[in-house]
Write a structure and sequence with these properties.
Shape of chain A: globular
Radius of gyration of chain B: 13 Å
Largest sheet of chain B: 6 strands, mixed
Mean pLDDT of chain B: 94
Number of helices of chain A: 0
Order of helices and strands of chain B: EEEEEEEEEEE
Structural class of chain B: mainly beta
Helix content of chain B: under 10%
Order of helices and strands of chain A: EEEEEEEEEEE
Oligomer: heterodimer
Largest sheet of chain A: 7 strands, mixed
Radius of gyration of chain A: 13 Å
Shape of chain B: globular
Number of helices of chain B: 0
Low-confidence stretches of chain A: none
Mean pLDDT of chain A: 94
Chain lengths: ~120, ~110
């Protein structure tokens, strides 16, 4: 059981470079999301998607883009990397309850990103 | 806006003692309250959850209690063991696809 797969595990970028963090899940979950984790800040929601073709902003969306062309994949794009985007990024997927409340989040192993 | 506050940020307990972590939430529409454990270098994993129509749930050494009137919920770990050392996150979610996490509690189990 693969669950949620994130690639790459580590990445170093220079300021201004762009890149895409990949996320794939094999549980047929409709709900997928991206978080960043910084020391003392917990998990902050960047973007989320409730199904293919639908995305929405979370708490900290600036500087990031997402798309959801399939149920399985939810890539996160950094348009022009900045040192403030140095963080650990987690992708998660879940089912939703009937009232659209997100259920159990299944997290990937994370991508550790450094922007110099 | 919606908020989940978690306390304490760091907690040290002697092995065998109990640990309690508390969270408060701001949106009274919240109806699902999961707890996650994150070990070093890994993604968070669910350890227990509770829905708003239940006041308490227990699973072996861990339990969660919910007080909807006061808008707070707590994680209780009894008979703590070294493998309980980790970072714990509470979260609250509700309809319209909303979920918010607390800032986390680093739990140290002392020998």
């Amino acid at each position: 059981n693969a669950g949620v797969t994130q690639t790459p595990k580590f990445q170093v970028l220079k300021t201004g470079q762009s890149m895409t963090l990949q996320c794939a899940q094999d549980m047929n979950h409709e709900y997928m999301s991206w978080y960043r984790q910084d020391p003392g800040m917990g998990l902050r929601l960047i973007h989320y998607s409730v199904g293919a073709g639908i995305t929405d902003q979370g708490e900290v969306p600036n500087g990031y883009n997402v798309s959801r062309s399939t149920t399985e994949d939810f890539p996160l794009r950094l348009l022009s990397a900045a040192p403030s985007q140095t963080s650990v990024y987690f992708c998660a997927s879940s089912y939703s309850f009937q009232d659209r409340t997100p259920g159990i989040q299944y997290f990937g192993a994370g991508t550790r990103l450094s922007v110099l | 806006g919606e908020n989940v506050e978690q306390h304490p940020s760091t907690l040290s307990v002697q092995e065998g003692d109990s640990a309690v972590i508390k969270c408060t939430y701001s949106d009274s529409a919240s109806n699902y309250f999961p707890w996650y454990k994150q070990e070093l270098g890994k993604g968070p994993q669910l350890i227990i959850d509770i829905r708003s129509n239940v006041g308490e749930k227990k699973d072996q050494r861990i339990a969660v209690t919910l007080n909807k009137t006061a808008k707070h919920f707590s994680l209780h770990i009894t008979e703590t063991q070294p493998e309980d050392s980790a970072v714990y996150f509470c979260a609250a979610s509700w309809g319209d696809d909303k979920i918010i996490f607390g800032k986390g509690t680093r739990l140290h189990i002392l020998p």
